[in-house]
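Quick one - inputs below.
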Amino acid sequence: MESLWSHSDEADLVKEYEKQGVTGDVALRVYSARLLGKVRQLVLHGGGNVSVKTKMSDVLGKAEDVICVKGSGWDMEYIDPPGLPAVRLNPIQELSGLKFLSDEDMVNAQRTHLLDAKSPNPSVETLLHAFLPHKFIDHSHADAILVLANQPNAEELCREVFGDFLGVVPYIMPGFALAKASAKIYEKNPHVEGLMLINHGLFTFGNTAKESYDRHIHAVTLAEEYIGKKPLKALTPLEGPAMKAGEETLMNALAPVIRGLYREQSGKDWVLHHRADAKAKEFASSKECETWSQIGTATPDHVIRTKQKPLLLDLQQWQDPDKLRKEVSQALNTYCESYHQYFETNKSAKGIDKTELDRLPRVLLVAGLGLVTIGKTVKETRISADIYQHSIDIIHKSFSLGDYVPLSSSDLFDMEYWSLEQAKLGKSKAPALQGKVVYITGAASGIGLATAQLFAEQGANLFLADRTADKFNEVADAIRKEANVGVATRVLDVTDESAVRQSFEQLVQTFGGIDILISNAGNAMQGAMGEVGMKELRASFELNFFAHQILASEALKRFLIQKTGGVLLFNASKAAFNPGKNFGPYALPKATVVALTKQYALDYGSYGIRSNAINADRIRTALFSEDVLKERAKARGLTPDDYFRNNLLQQEVYDTDVAQGFLSLALAEKTTGSIITIDGGNIAASPR
Ligand code: ZN
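Output:
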């Protein structure tokens, strides 16, 4: 493994932080933590931690010895000084004199001695850092180290690979006992430059940030070189029918079924992610996977992201959704029963009182398809996919080198049900639409964009379609950053039937399925009915009616496979009830959209599928070109501004008001076949 240390980057960062009043020690701590954090073979998603022992002034200006250690919830790749809370060193070092310290007392002591009460909780491995004397300490769960640390003869191997360079610590759960044991092993051999923790990871230390970092890279390099000498074992491919089906076919068939079954089991919405990775596919499609993947996680931390083991699927029946559902449901039930067993066995063996977590797997290994992850947010699915991709590599290399003997299920249970570990997942209340997938057309601007933003704020993942690519990606990026949800885009003409059908396949490949369709795209066409050309009229029907039907029928197909109900929302128009003069080419298809709304409500109500529409009027959007606007206003004898305020409430109606209407209808679980007006009040256009 290559060192990424750059003296000029280091100096720049130190200088930059100096201006902000951050000391050189802390700046260097940030610098090398980030270097470790950005290499995936070393650190994944909040894994690992670092510390520096330094001096800081308290409120009286008195210099105190402190340890700045990574705070819980911070990612090393993006760490900043606030992510390294300072804890008074002496009082927590004195804890090493105790024989026993409970987790609660440990967390309390760490918080009590913080210099700044607003700091995040210092890492659960703080005491390990504090009990060692070194100024800089780095800890990772590096892939190559885990290959060695999970061998049955790890201690022996460690001597062979690292000589006297690393001490070896047997597996103990993170916390006070591990901190004490590690310090003791170091004190026996004070010349060691780091510690290998069996079944867990690597610590290195040094007097400078660079010394500790260099030792870390050196240890990982030695491990990589050693592992590299053994060729990878060849995997034996499975021979079931799914092996020839093709990834897209399998994902399209499987994902909506999985979403449906998860919803049925948990009452919550889930999103899927297929990680396109040839190695993961080869592993998932191998005979070896049947045993190798069912042993356990490579480091204890991973259990909260991936559960102890993935669900294996070698599908036989993907062509028929009902048969597929039965097949997957059986496999899922077996998994859940086995999880329940694991919970009950460990709970009674330990004589403790815990509440069982949900039993559903987070990682699926599907023959012919590969690695699929499932979570309540897109972010969760990405984290478990990243972790499992590395797990596959670790497991494969471990078996090629010898064996793979990670933590026992009893130790893993302690970790999974450890309150300090569960705290990492956060307990904040889920937004109303978390896990939902919403397809919105005409989403790059106006009502579609306002609706996308509002649904994202509620936690929904978005599939956005628009006919223009102009600024579309910028818009999507902004929503993704702001709301931290999944956002996919597709440039699409909604009148192109085959393109629409393909877009639904893309949607399933991206998120696994759909819950809400907002069929919003449309365009206003004018003309007196006696004069309008058939070509123009048909074109208006294509966009303002048939496109809605194509979209709705495609959404419906997925709703019926998921069996989770579903929501169809149409942007109709007040013209259905109150046509405007010479606006027939627009009013006619829009009137049929109102009929379409009701027809879907009627035909599919018994499946829990709801169909509703919004009649909006006079919203300033691209639909109203300057010319159309002037003409419409003139037709009513008004200026453009008065035209927009010409309603009962005498207030202009905005695209955000229409978005609110769509959201209300999406949430109104007992409303179907309904049309609501968002027009500031227009008695002539009110539904009757
Ligand atoms: Zn660790």
